[in-house]
Amino acid sequence: MTGGAGFIGSNFVRLANKQNPDWQIEILDKLTYAGNPQNLDGLDPTKVHLTKGDICDNELVDTLVKDCDAVIHFAAESHNDNSLTSPWPFVETNIVGTYTLLEAVRKYEKRYHHISTDEVYGDLELDDPHKFTEDTPYMPSSPYSSTKAGSDHLVRAWIRSFGIQATISNCSNNYGPYQHVEKFIPRQITNILLGDRPKLYGSGENVRDWIHVDDHNSAVLAILDKGKLSETYMIGANGEKNNKEVLEQILEIMGQPKDAYDHVSDRPGHDLRYAIDASKLKNELGWQPKYTDFASGITATIEWYKNNRSWWEPLKAQTEKKYQELGR
Ligand code: NAD
Ligand code: DAU
What we know:
Oligomer: single chain
Strand order of the largest sheet: 3-4-5-10
Helix content: 40-55%
Bound molecules: nicotinamide-adenine-dinucleotide, 2'deoxy-thymidine-5'-diphospho-alpha-D-glucose
Shape: globular
Largest sheet: 4 strands, parallel
Order of helices and strands: HEEHEHHEHEEHEEEHEEHEHHH
Structural class: alpha/beta
Radius of gyration: 19 Å
């Protein structure tokens, strides 16, 4: 798998190792600012191995893909705000990196699963009765989402033109342990823990469809196990909430007044709403989310950040410096 030292990837390794203790998991990760080998601490080294390297390095990718049974591709440049200040790493990793993996799985005829995002579909109006489905047309807004869309198109083309054995999943916003402090929920929790005020972009009306990272990953395991080749599956857990509601809930759980935050300038091109219809995944593969109570999921996540200061404190100053420069 790629990107196993990042947020979702490292949680995937833990879950996959628990559910399939016989699996040998080989991780390829560049260890960018978002990757941390400590995320894999405590895992059995005879079952989980990390190779530091770039998914754009075709010789390395070739060597690793040759010896595996399946490739699960999590690695990406993943943060929208970064893509607005510096798009090139997104084009390189998300598009050229995916191309490099696809060529290797084509050559060695390996099973491939592609991790993607709901952002490839653009955004919805607040009152739109429709949600994103596998048939929603692509309409990405940001450099991040457009490069993820580009990578999905490559996978679809490699399936149709070369017959590779692949599946794709498009998931909504994840939360849980090991998420980088640049992202919305960890940024607000860690600001409060440091005595700083949380920051809400624009009006805070933007809606995200929150899912616990373990639910995302259990869905990926279900697709690997039972998914139909060439198919796309939407992953979501009916977790729509606007940013203001989420922030107020975090403040309340952490014993702060509900209005103890700053409004800051909005993200350029900010998508208004994402919402997932995961019926296909539920009906065809029998998948169900476990973390259906957002309040308890977010309380456990807050506890994790309280108990793991040494994990996030070294990341905080540099991250907030970047936000300060952007006025956000
Ligand atoms: P992350 O930024 O936390 O982790 C990305 C990982 O990829 C890091 O370990 C990083 O070192 C590695 N990486 C980056 N460039 C690389 C390269 N060129 N070669 C090898 N490794 C490289 O990201 P995340 O939030 O865990 O997201 C993982 C995947 O899930 C991404 O594909 C993302 O698009 C997708 N996704 C994320 C969310 C979300 O809410 N975070 C939702 C849906 C889909
Ligand atoms: O929808 C899936 C996507 O979710 C993934 O593909 C991306 O990799 C992941 O980063 C996430 O994208 P978002 O842009 O939605 O996530 P982010 O955590 O950056 O922001 C969530 C919302 O919160 C968004 O509307 C912007 C807002 N926000 C964000 C930050 C960092 C704030 O209001 N304040 C903040 O400080």
